[in-house]
Write a structure and sequence with these properties.
alpha/beta, Glutaredoxin, Thioredoxin domain-containing protein, Thioredoxin_domain
Length: 305
């Protein structure tokens, strides 16, 4: 009841003020908007409450709301993929969806039964890859042969089966064989720039060697025992942390906002003029307060007898 009375009182007392203010305005649109009670007046009261609650001036509040709206718009553009596209992700998905990989194994249960009881590969993910392998730091844990694969890819499953046979023949060596599922480990995929699966990489003495031969057991064993020397050695990239991922995400949002504003110069001009007006009003208020303080300090104090 108190709130309703307060709104109705404001509607009646401020009606003439609103019309007078609107008549002095150069824009007829503002006058039409303020002639639609009680919705516009309710919004005005809500704006007044928010600015008083957070001790924020209306220009600052409008500027903050504009920035928030731009951020939401940029997120929408980024989600639709109209502003930015990730070519690596598209290439990765293309590698998964090739005609050869679309042919699924009809005897899935027979394939699982064939390798039932065989030792499974070590599982590496975004959280334990660098901790277990130490590929970019010291690699004191040993030599690692890592398969990047996907469960939905038939060549990946065949590569896993081949690698299990390699593990069976080299289980007494110092070779550590592991697998990374690219579908659930985006940071590791981005770190090693995995464009398609399956990919087999040998990590040895802080260097990485990508296997490019035929997926046969003896060929892979020869590659591990010395064939890697004929392959170009690459430096192991550093681990991508959550802070790096956050910075990259912010960079993508920033690029999305810039692209959105570049395609809409009217919005850019409006935001720029609004921010300039907010800065002008803020500076003017600060100068007025400074003048009042200087005037108060310059007044002679009254003598008290």
């Amino acid at each position: 009841m108190i709130m309703e009375g307060h709104i109705s009182h404001n509607l009646s007392t401020n009606s003439s003020k609103l019309k007078l203010w609107a008549s002095r305005s150069d824009s007829g649109i503002i006058y039409l908007c303020y002639c639609v009670p009680p919705y516009i007046e309710g919004l005005r009261l809500l704006l007044t409450y928010i600015t008083d609650k957070f001790r924020m001036g209306r220009p600052q509040f409008i500027a903050v709301m504009l920035v928030i709206l731009l951020g939401i718009t940029a997120l929408g553009e980024l989600a639709k993929g109209t502003s930015l596209e990730d070519p690596a992700e598209e290439t990765l998905q293309t590698g998964f969806d090739s005609e050869e990989e679309k042919e699924m194994d009809l005897d899935t249960q027979d394939w699982d039964d064939e390798f039932e009881g065989t030792p499974t590969l070590r599982v590496l993910n975004d959280d334990n890859f660098e901790h277990d392998t130490q590929a970019a730091t010291g690699q004191t844990t040993g030599i690692w042969l890592v398969l990047f694969w996907s469960h939905h890819s038939v060549p990946s499953r065949n590569a896993e089966a081949t690698l299990l046979q390699v593990y069976t023949q080299m289980r007494h060596s110092h070779l550590l064989i592991a697998a990374v599922n690219v579908s659930s480990n985006p940071r590791t995929v981005q770190r090693f720039d995995i464009q398609k699966v399956p990919v087999l990489i040998l990590f040895r003495e802080r260097r990485m060697y990508t296997y490019k031969g035929h997926w046969a057991v003896m060929n892979i064993i020869k590659f591990v025992k010395g064939g890697y020397e004929s392959v170009t050695a690459e430096t192991v990239p550093k681990e991508i942390t959550y802070s790096d991922q956050l910075l990259e995400t912010l960079s993508l949002y920033y690029q999305a906002i810039i692209t959105y504003l570049a395609n809409r110069p009217g919005i850019l001009a409006g935001v720029g003029s609004t921010l300039a007006m907010c800065g002008y009003l803020r500076t003017k208020r600060w100068l007025m307060r400074r003048q009042l303080n200087n005037a108060a300090k310059g007044r002679p104090r009254k003598r008290v007898d």
